[in-house]
UniProtKB/TrEMBL annotation:
CDD domains: AdoMet_MTases. InterPro entries: RNA_cap_Gua-N2-MeTrfase, SAM-dependent_MTases_sf. Pfam families: Methyltransf_15. It catalyses: a 5'-end (N(7)-methyl 5'-triphosphoguanosine)-ribonucleoside in snoRNA + S-adenosyl-L-methionine = a 5'-end (N(2),N(7)-dimethyl 5'-triphosphoguanosine)-ribonucleoside in snoRNA + S-adenosyl-L-homocysteine + H(+); a 5'-end (N(7)-methyl 5'-triphosphoguanosine)-ribonucleoside in snRNA + S-adenosyl-L-methionine = a 5'-end (N(2),N(7)-dimethyl 5'-triphosphoguanosine)-ribonucleoside in snRNA + S-adenosyl-L-homocysteine + H(+); a 5'-end (N(2),N(7)-dimethyl 5'-triphosphoguanosine)-ribonucleoside in snoRNA + S-adenosyl-L-methionine = a 5'-end (N(2),N(2),N(7)-trimethyl 5'-triphosphoguanosine)-ribonucleoside in snoRNA + S-adenosyl-L-homocysteine + H(+); a 5'-end (N(2),N(7)-dimethyl 5'-triphosphoguanosine)-ribonucleoside in snRNA + S-adenosyl-L-methionine = a 5'-end (N(2),N(2),N(7)-trimethyl 5'-triphosphoguanosine)-ribonucleoside in snRNA + S-adenosyl-L-homocysteine + H(+). This is Trimethylguanosine synthase. One of its GO terms (cellular component) is nucleus. GO terms for molecular function: RNA cap trimethylguanosine synthase activity. Belongs to the methyltransferase superfamily. Trimethylguanosine synthase family.
Amino acid sequence: MTKKRKRTSIAPYVQHLSPSSITSSSSSKHLNLSAYHPDLDHSSLDPTLSSEYHSLLPQCLVHPSTFPPNMLKYWRHRHSLFSLYSAGCLLDEQSWFSVTPESVAFRIARRCASNGAVVDLFSGAGGNAIQFAMTCSKVIAVEVDEVKLRLARWNARVYGVEERICFVRGDSIEFLQRLKSWREAESESEQGKEVWKGITSEDVHAVQAVFLSPPWGGVDYAQPNSTYTLSSIHPIDGTTLFSLVHTAFATNNIAYYLPRNTSLPELSHLSALAHHSSVVPSKVKVECNYVNYGSKLSSLTAYYGALSADWDDDTDDWRS
């Protein structure tokens, strides 16, 4: 019989820390942050990677004593966010509560699997991009925050999929608007032409699906007995964002990752927007994403276009 690993509470340690001892400066100077990555072989890192790791550490929450009290729950579930967390995965404060749990990201990646490319807008620290890299030929990950993009690249290295991801630093809305203008100018026939920040027309034509996980507005999006509306999404409302994605990529194949209390009528309404002149208007399928061994509903994923096809309503899974 396999022996279960004993869980060690961090509460006694945290209680004995004075407020002045949990500042970011003291963390980087006095705490052994890398001790929380026991499976990371530092001797295997070349000087460049070692330098990158140690430059990212102070910008991340790694040691439990540096976490705000209301965020310690995320640290306790770190291996559900990244199963290889102990091998060196890094997250800044915002990424701890915004990254997609790995089991959920895995299911989304399976549904978006193809021999083409998938675009991950607002990619953050790379949780979804890493899983997409395991099911698609290429991933284009767009993120405006430089630190988060560096974290995404680092985490992809931990998983060994960095080479399959094109990391692009830039604003996702700017990218969509540029792509929309490019299509309207009918310049897409120019093969190999750069469309935006190294992304070429060939890259755009290879896109089979687009994944949307825009900022939800912090940790207070799921108030009791409340309904989350698409107008709460920033930097532009969720309906406008969806329409812009559809127009920019000329595809119905969109996966929309949203809070568990999102308005279902609004998601249904989006299906009327997800159509192209040559195809039948898209349908939508909404999947409930559970974590903690199926005990907690964490989020919803709405699938449009071909991503909503071949769905078995009896089992809420793909038909084989």
